[in-house]
């Protein structure tokens, strides 16, 4: 193959490998966030009403865009928040304030700019007094 052909093929090969780089979100759940790290981690929470459950995420493969964090109770959307992602990798978090009646099975999902699921985590909540 002539050397000049590589001049055209190499950028196309790099573009193809970049297209296959998959965006993803790693999630940790807890009762607080300190220095970008979630604290009080668990997948089962027994909390008082008005307690926040934080979902801290490390997002990679998304840059200069936004992702959506969705909290679902028993499969139904309970809340969502849009989070800016200025660079990759990037750490950010969202939270859901648990109220009386919020006991049950929960899922938090991080959706990419195009709506594809980048990561999810299931957890149980028991709100005392509910």
From TrEMBL:
Keyword Signal assigned: yes
Domain of life (superkingdom): Bacteria
Domain DUF2914: 65-125
The species this protein was found in: Hyalangium rubrum
A Pfam family of this chain: DUF2914
Signal peptide feature range: 1-21
Protein name, per record: DUF2914 domain-containing protein
Record's keyword terms, sorted: Signal
